[in-house]
Each structure stands twice: as structure tokens, then as C-alpha cells.
Specification:
mainly beta; Porin; 18-stranded antiparallel barrel; 18 strands
Amino acid sequence: MSYSKYLLKTTHALFLAAVTLGASGSAQAEWTHAFSLRTEEGYDSNVYLQNFGPTAKQDSFITVIQPKVDLGYLSKPFNLNLTYAPKVSIYGSERTENNVAHAMGINFKGNITDSLSYEVLNSLNYVNGSRTAPTFVGPGGAPAIGGFSIRDRRESAWMKQSAKLTWTIGSFFVRPVYNGYIHDFKTIQKEEPGYANYVDRKQFNGGVDLGFKVLKETWFVTGYRYGIQEQDRLFDNPIKYNNTFQRALFGLEGQPVSWLKICATAGPSFHHFNDSVPEAFGRNHTRVYADATVTLTPTSNDSLILATTRFEQMSSGGRGAYQDIVYRAGYVRKLTSALDLKADFRLYRGEFEAPANRKDNIYTPSLGLSWKVNPHLSCDCQYSYEWAESDVEDTWGREYNHHLVSVGANLSF
């Protein structure tokens, strides 16, 4: 059975089980629905993330139209949420970048008993875009971390799934967990210098968490994961970085005080690569895994989010793997009951495994302003400036500067 069919069958089985549980609470159940429409006009100063070469600093206005349908079924043992939000992006000057991203969500959660709860989240996305990838001819090849924003405008499909069952016993809980991810790139592959060939990748892991209450509404959590990571071969090159891993996790979850929320886990991740990696790379490597978010609300009008993630990722360009690292700080200031000011800064770093000689950094500060005109209409404007740097000498093809500005409106009914 293929991984994609396995993931779909798993979703179907969990869905049927949850519907069965929900039947007993149908007398108190209700259906909900919401519809919205977003329109946005934006400007991209560097569509292909290139400072030099034939596609350098190609700019374009972008029109975005995104309707959304949100359906819900609410009961005590079973809550279902279905969403569909196709996003149409039209590039005025670069028509090859036009695309429609069909984003779907199938999520359900509930309480089997007062002490036993479950949650299953499913995200699916199909992009109807160009099947031809870009060509990068500058020294160093593709822009920082492969130019993933360009890649994501091309034809592809991906699915992410997570499931957890939480059994709470006084000041202790047990939580089995599962996560799945499949990314199917549908662009044409070519054996041409500089052409970006994208390679399918997938990851699955499962395990269990144990939680102990250490403060009011705060839990110390320790966990274990076992997983696999795979990527397809590119042409006749035998190199792949497929591996299995075991991961030990330690962290905190909860709200120790009214103005502080924590959800943080970290620990060592032990990867065993198969015999298709380069001999000099070796078979066993230990990496750091981290996933942490801290939310502070010092006043009713201010909130600050500090977040970081770090994990081993299969390269979508194939024949490689890298440490995917993000540091982020976000601030929201409520100026009035209807007006919010937002500021954000993100550092995205990719540390590629040997023998690849690539260490990239992408810095992105941004500002935004949102205005709630009435219960059905809101408007916003956003600006971000992005610049990329390479730690490797003479690879300036990976470096770029990028401005992105947009003005949008959301109508809900």
C-alpha cells in the first residue's frame, strides 16, 4: 500500500470512529457555517528572488482572490470542522507564476469521557500552477533554502496529518501521538544545468508523551518518537538521505500565570541513514529537535509571541538533507477596539548536510495594520522586506533582496 493511500485510509478510519462517538450526543448537536471572501492587491519587487542574471529583480503586481467555506458540527463527544479556501493568485507581469492553491481542512476532536479526549487534524493542499520549474544560473545555484516560495507556486500536492489521544488522571496524563506528511511535486524534471528539479518527500512518526503537573495549569512533559523520512531518487543518481529516527523530548505546556502561555519541547534526535548516502557522510547522526512557542500578554492591549523550530528535513531538491531552523518574534498592539498594529521578525536558516556546501539565512522584518470596519468587513495593509545571505564564499546567486507590499479586505457573511 502506498503512503498516500495509507494516510487517507487512516484519516477515514479515525473519522468513522469519531462519527460513531458523536452519534450518542446528536440530540445536543448543532451545525454551523461561515462564508468569507478575501481580495488583495500586492506588489512583489523580486518575483524570482534573484539579484543578478536574466530574471533578476523581475517585479509584478499580484491580485489575490480567496473565498472560504467553513462548516462545523458541534457536540460534546464530537466536533467536526470542514474548510475549503481556494486561493487564486494572478501575477500581472509574470504570467507563468499564476496559480490556484486549493487549501482544505478536515479536523475533528472531542471528549470520549471527562478524562479522555482526542484530536485529529488534516490539512490538504493542491496547487494548480506551472509544471515547469525555474532555472538558476548564478554562482551557488538556487536562492537561499532553494527558493521555496517560488517552488510553492508550481503544481504540487501535499498532505499533513496529526492525531493525539489524551488520558488525564489527576496530575498526570498519557498522550499517544501520530504525525504524517507527504509532499508530491508535479513539475517536469530535466537534466539541464541550473534547472530546479523538485523531488517528492515524506515523513511519518509516532510515539507517546507523559505529562506531570508541576504548577497550576502547567505540565512538565517528556516524550518519545520513532519515525521515518524518505525522498525519491533523482534520475539515475543513487544518493538518497532516507533515514529512521528516534527522538527524546522534554518540555513545558500550559499557563503558569494569566499573562504567560508556554508550549515548548526539545531534545536529541538520533538519525540512522540508509546505505544510499555518500560513504563519507556516515550512517548515524544526532541532531537537535525543538518546537517552542511562548506567548506573553503584559496588558489587555499588547501581546508578544516568541517562537522557534528546528528539525532535520529532506531537501525538496533531492540528494540532500538540512537542518530547518526558524526564530521568530511577533508583536501585536491594539490601538483601538477596531485597529491593530502588528510587527514581526523572522530568521530562517538552512544548514545543509555534507557534502553539500550550503548555509543560508533569510531575514524578514514586517509591519501590518488591520482595521475592523464592522462585524462583516475588515481591511489590512502589510509590508515586508526580506534579504538572504549565504555563509559560503562566492555563492552570491543565493543572495537577494525582496520587498512585498499588499492591501486587502475580508468580507464575511
